[in-house]
Automatic annotation (TrEMBL):
Name of this chain's protein: ATP-binding protein
Organism: Streptomyces griseoviridis
Residue span, Helicase HerA-like C-terminal domain: 54-523
UniProt-listed InterPro entries: HerA_C, P-loop_NTPase, T4SS_component
Parts forming coiled coils: none
Highest taxon, organism lineage: Bacteria
PANTHER family given in the database record: SLR6007 PROTEIN, UNCHARACTERIZED PROTEIN YJGR-RELATED
Key words of the record: ATP-binding, Nucleotide-binding
Region Disordered: start-end pairs: 1-20
Listed Pfam families: HerA_C
Keyword hit for Transferase: no
One GO MF term attached to the UniProt entry: ATP binding
Length: 524
C-alpha cells in the first residue's frame, strides 16, 4: 500500500516532529498545509537549501474541484507531477482524465521500476514507496494511434469548436453557426463531416440559393469559404474524428472494481502534429461533461479531475466567443464536481480570466535566458501570494521534480507559498510496452462499443437522395408557363423537409438545444 493511502491525516506539519522543531518560517508554511480530512501528499518543504521531510505539503481532496495549474519549462518534471497527482486521486477513488501528448503517461497502469534515483527521492521526502500500477483505459482520437476510438458527431461538437479547428475568422464562425441552426431546424442530422459539407454545398448550389437567402447574415461568398475549409480539412485525414458511435463522456467517471478511480488516458502521439484539433477535442469533452452532469455543489471529493495538457494550444488564435465559453465552462463546471488542471509552460499562456479561477498552483522551474524570459518570470512571481521566498531566485533554481506550490486550504484560503521537493510516482515513469498497450485496448469492453464506425442516414444521404430523384426538366421559355419545381426545390420548399423529417434516433424536425460553444446536449 502506498504512503498516500496508509498515512493518517496530519493535523501537525509532519509526523514525528512538532511544528516548533522546524525553523519558525518553515513551521508557519507547513502549518498552512495541515489537513484534517483526505488529502494528497505532494512532497516535502524546501527551506534554506534543505529538504524538511517533516513539513509535508498536502492538498485537501475537497479543494481539487477548485481547478489548478501545473506549469514549468520543458524537462522540469511536469509530466511526473501529473502522474503523481493522478495516482493519488485514483488511490482515493477519484477518476482522472489525462491527455498524453508525448506518449509517456501510459506507464501509469504498470508498477514502477525501483532504482537508485527513486529510492533517493523517497528517502529525501520520507515516502514509503511501493511499485504500484493503477486501473487505466486508453483512448485515441478517431482511432488514430493505439486506443479505444473517441469520436464526436459534428452536431454535438458545435460551430464554435469547429470554427476553431477550421481556423475561421469571427465572421466565418458566426456564419457557420447559422448553417448549424439551419440544419438543426430542417432535421438534417450532422453526424460526420460529409454531412456538413453536403449542407453547405447545397446552400451554395442553384437549388439551395433561395434557402441561403432566408438565412440572415450568411453570404454566398462566406459559405463558399467554409466549404473550401471543410474540404481542405477532410483532405488532411481528419474525417475519422467525427461520426458515430459518439463517445459517451460518462465513461470518464468510472471507478474500478476495487474502488480506485479509473485513469482515462487519451493517447495523442499519433496526432500531436494537429494541435488545434486535439486541444479543441479536449474542450469538447469538458463541454459535454458540463451539459450532462447535474449540479452537486461542493463535494468532499471531486467526481473527476481533468488534466488539460498543452493548454496554450487551446488559447492560441482563439476568438472572443471561444475564450468567453472557456471561461464560463471553467467557472461553472466546478459546481458539477469536476476539477480542471491546465498544464503548460508558463502562467502567461492562460488568459487572466481563466487563471484567476485556478486555486491550486504547482509551478516548476522557469528559465530566464532572454529579456522575454525575464519578463515572463517577473509576471509569474506576481501571480503568487506574498512570500518569504525570493521567488525569482527560487523559480530559476529549482531542480527537476521540484516546484513552488500554493493551493486552497480546507477553509478555502490560499496556503503559503511552499518550495517543494515532490514525491516519486509509484507507477512506471515512461511508456507502457507496445504489446501490453495493445492488449489493454483490445480486451477492454469499451473497444467493442466504439471500435467500429457507424454511418447512419443523415444530411448527406438525404440531400443525395433528393438530388438523385429530381427530374431533369428543360429550361422553360421566357414567355412560357413556369417550369415545375425540381424534387430538391419541393423538398426545401413550403414542406420544410417534411418528406424527410423522420426520426431516426435524433431530434429531427425541431431545433437542437445548444449551449456552451454551441455544442448540443447529448441525446439519450
Amino acid at each position: 500500500m502506498s504512503d498516500s493511502e496508509s498515512a493518517p491525516a496530519a493535523t501537525t506539519p509532519g509526523a514525528g516532529r512538532s511544528a516548533s522543531a522546524l525553523p519558525p518560517e518553515a513551521a508557519a508554511i507547513a502549518l498552512g498545509y495541515a489537513a484534517t480530512g483526505p488529502a494528497l501528499d505532494l512532497g516535502a518543504l524546501l527551506w534554506d537549501g534543505r529538504c524538511l521531510p517533516d513539513a509535508r505539503i498536502r492538498v485537501p481532496l475537497a479543494a481539487l474541484n477548485r481547478h489548478g495549474l501545473v506549469a514549468g519549462a520543458t524537462g522540469t518534471g511536469k509530466t511526473k507531477t501529473l502522474q503523481l497527482i493522478a495516482e493519488q486521486l485514483s488511490a482515493q477513488g477519484v477518476p482522472v482524465f489525462l491527455a498524453d501528448v508525448k506518449g509517456d503517461l501510459s506507464g501509469i497502469s504498470a508498477p514502477g521500476a525501483p532504482g537508485d534515483q527513486v529510492r533517493a527521492r523517497a528517502d529525501e521526502v520520507r515516502q514509503r514507496w511501493t511499485a504500484t500500477g493503477f486501473p487505466a483505459e486508453f483512448y485515441a482520437l478517431g482511432g488514430i494511434g493505439t486506443g479505444i476510438p473517441v469520436r464526436a458527431t459534428v452536431t454535438s461538437f458545435g460551430p464554435v469548436l469547429l470554427a476553431k479547428v477550421l481556423q475561421l475568422n469571427r465572421t466565418q464562425e458566426q456564419s457557420l453557426g447559422l448553417i448549424f441552426h439551419y440544419a438543426d431546424t430542417k432535421g438534417l442530422e450532422l453526424f460526420d463531416l460529409k454531412d456538413l459539407r453536403a449542407v453547405v454545398a447545397f446552400l451554395t448550389s442553384d437549388e439551395g440559393r433561395a434557402e441561403l437567402k432566408e438565412i440572415g447574415g450568411l453570404s454566398t461568398a462566406t459559405a463558399g469559404v467554409i466549404l473550401r475549409s471543410l474540404t481542405a480539412f477532410e483532405a488532411q485525414g481528419t474525417a475519422g474524428f467525427f461520426g458515430e458511435p459518439e463517445f459517451d463522456t460518462a465513461e470518464l467517471l468510472r471507478t474500478a472494481s476495487d474502488g480506485r478511480g479509473l485513469v482515462s488516458v487519451l493517447e495523442l502521439p499519433a496526432v500531436q502534429d494537429r494541435p488545434a484539433l486535439f486541444s479543441t477535442f479536449l474542450m469538447w469533452l469538458l463541454a459535454d461533461l458540463f451539459h450532462d452532469l447535474p449540479e452537486v455543489g461542493d463535494l468532499d471529493r471531486p467526481k473527476l479531475v481533468f488534466f488539460f495538457d498543452e493548454a496554450h494550444l487551446l488559447f492560441d488564435g482563439a476568438s472572443k466567443a471561444f475564450l468567453d465559453s472557456i471561461t464560463q465552462t471553467v467557472r461553472l463546471i466546478r459546481s458539477k464536481g469536476v476539477g480542471v488542471f491546465f498544464v503548460t509552460q508558463s502562467p502567461k499562456d492562460v488568459p487572466s480570466d481563466v487563471l484567476g479561477q485556478l486555486g491550486n498552483r504547482v509551478q516548476h522551474a522557469l528559465r530566464a535566458f532572454t529579456p522575454d524570459d525575464q519578463k515572463a518570470l517577473r509576471a509569474t512571481v506576481k501571480t503568487f501570494p506574498d512570500s518569504p521566498y525570493d521567488l525569482e531566485e527560487v523559480l530559476t533554481g529549482l531542480g527537476t521534480g521540484e516546484a513552488v506550490v500554493t493551493v486552497l486550504s480546507e477553509r478555502g484560503a490560499p496556503t503559503p507559498v511552499a518550495a517543494t521537493r515532490l514525491r516519486a510516482p509509484e507507477s512506471l515513469m515512461g511508456p507502457l510496452d507496445a504489446a501490453a498497450l495493445d492488449r489493454a485496448v483490445s480486451t477492454s469492453p469499451g473497444y467493442a462499443r466504439y471500435a467500429q464506425a457507424v454511418d447512419r442516414e443523415s444530411a448527406y444521404e438525404k440531400l443525395t437522395a433528393a438530388r438523385a430523384t429530381a427530374p431533369t426538366a428543360p429550361r422553360a421559355p421566357a414567355t412560357g408557363p413556369k417550369a415545375e419545381p425540381s424534387m430538391v426545390e419541393q423538398v426545401v420548399g413550403s414542406g420544410m423537409f417534411k418528406s424527410l423529417a423522420r426520426s431516426i434516433g435524433t431530434q429531427v424536425g425541431r431545433e437542437i438545444t445548444r449551449s456552451l460553444f454551441g455544442t448540443a446536449k447529448r441525446r439519450r
